[in-house]
Amino acid sequence: MKIVLNIALASALCLFSNTGSAQFVPSEDSLQGLYPGKAYSPYAQRSFPSRVFWGDTHVHTGLSMDAGLFGNTTGLETMLRFARGEEVVSATGQPVKLSRPLDWIVTTEHSDGMGMITDLARGAPNVLASEQGARWAEGLQQGGEASAAAALDLITTFSQGEMDPALLADYSPGSPIYTSVWESMVDEVEAFNDPGDFTAFHGFEWTSLIRGNNMHRNVVFRDNADRVKQIQPMTTQPPIGSPDPMALYQWLETYEAETGGQAFALSHNGNLSNGIMFPSETRYNGEPVDEAYAMARARWEPLYEATQIKGDGEAHPALSPDDEFADYETWDVGNLDLTQAKTPEMLAGEYAREALKQGFAIEARTGINPYRFGMVGSTDTHTSLATADSDNYFGKATNAEPSTTRAAHPFTETEVGIFPGWSLVASGYTGVWAEENTRASLWDAMVRREVYATTGPRMVVRFFGGWEFSEDDLRSRAPAFVGYDKGVPMGGDLRAAPDGSGAPNFMVYALRDPIGANLDRIQVVKGWMETDGTLQERVYDVAWSGDRQPDTGGKIPEVGNTVDLEAASYRNTIGASELGAVWTDPDFDPAEPAFYYARVIEIPTPRWVVYDKVRLGAEIPDGATLIGQERAYTSPIWYSTE
Length: 642
What we know:
By secondary structure, the chain is α+β, with helices and mostly antiparallel strands. It contains 17 helices and 30 strands. Strands 3, 6, 7, 18, 19, 23, 24, 26, 29 and 30 form a ten-stranded mixed β-sheet that branches. Strands 8, 11, 12, 13, 14 and 15 form a six-stranded mixed β-sheet that branches. Strand 12 (about 265-270), helix 13 (about 290-300) and strand 13 (about 305-310) form a beta-alpha-beta unit. Helix 4 packs parallel to helix 10 (about 175-190), helix 7 runs antiparallel to helix 8 (about 145-160) and helix 12 crosses helix 13. The longest helix has 17 residues, at about 175-190. The protein is globular. The termini are far apart.
């Protein structure tokens, strides 16, 4: 029988001879004839990140001094097992499990005083020989309110730089205790790292405080244990450590030079810094914000933690009075330990949006923008439990785990003011667009800022900037393909404008959390510097649910409210499951540098205090916020005039 194969079939099959077998490989010319243009299957040639991986860059266990004194008796194993989806038992004896596993997590124990809490709990002689240590040990042994009071006393003592030097020396880098604790932590994290399935990052928190003013940074390593074990973390307490971020940047540079590894830092809780987190002209120590500082910060801090348990840090209503969504989970009473009250002039150095704007002014003066950061969300939990959902919220510390009284018990209270217990926030998580679930892939995505923050919901958000997007680009149901082809993703810089182009345009798409609330709207937040140096901002509604129409001032009416406070529930009968838009900047001036980021707002849902009332019978304190609209913040896209 004579067999005739046409060229298409021959291209797909193997041809055999009686001397062996070989696979037919078609030439490029023959493929072009069969399949002109791009391949039929879009996934065959996909080279961009196609998955979002969820995690938390900021978690403490009982190994951290303050967490342990608050009563957290759980450690790294509990934290890591919980993050990857297992049921664990909290320090207060409650069973707890995530609704869905996380994909990755960063271990960020406080670098100062590693090992102290373990020795304090067992009454080690060197600890009891210190008046401070003996006092804290007594509080820990008494438990309950006494333990919480001891923890707050430790925080204030540390914040004010008044730790017993002899006690601290036993738990500082280079001491046998410190070395043992650090190496055992590295080993345990390494054992849980499972490339492709679950990523456990090595890290630590550098807890810089200037008289109670917060300048904390988390350090995240790309590396495995072989490199991380070659060093010990940077601390803040002199004479070994330093509270100066420039010293941390030097430490990072030394780490990379000596180990061949890679690491970065991300700052958080500028809202508790009383104006020193984002300096514009003069740093906390009186030194200028000059080229050296701008260069170092731009090099080592690609991300900022824009939302967490201790308040949301995207915007403040006093800085953004025209933004009706700016007053979200605002903490603005004072600094971290409430030893100094907040004053209005401090706010400009505390919030992400204002810092992004100030970056333009610093760049105009020094040639470098130090505040080109992406947005992440984290919990900063001290319970070992990375819970960011209001219906599964396990609090900031062990004394704020679920109970009938936690909403009424102050988080911090001094003569300066109060952070009420109910004001703690069930927030947040970070979505990372990466190729695979490995340290290298996720870390690289963080450095290029292809990440976004959420206050807890796992909504899917894409944001691209370019010059040639059209409404048709959203019709394919696969906007990422054209997004990467025509533009740049969140965290990037707009490409040079094609000849004859006008204003840049942006393609944004959001899909609700599949087990969460519908979406109210998508907004694009723009900040820019005018040619005379004036800094400006504006929030644009670009996509919204329903048939709402802008009012005469251009504002979209509220979406409505379906929250049932008696049942701690809501109905998804308003809002949309997905929203998308192609938006062109109507106020673009090519002579003005600008940034753009997307903010996605959910419909109203109950806060965690309502779940406490329904499930535990807890009384809700007067003045407590019961309902909120959770959200996501993408990393910005920048336009440069050069």
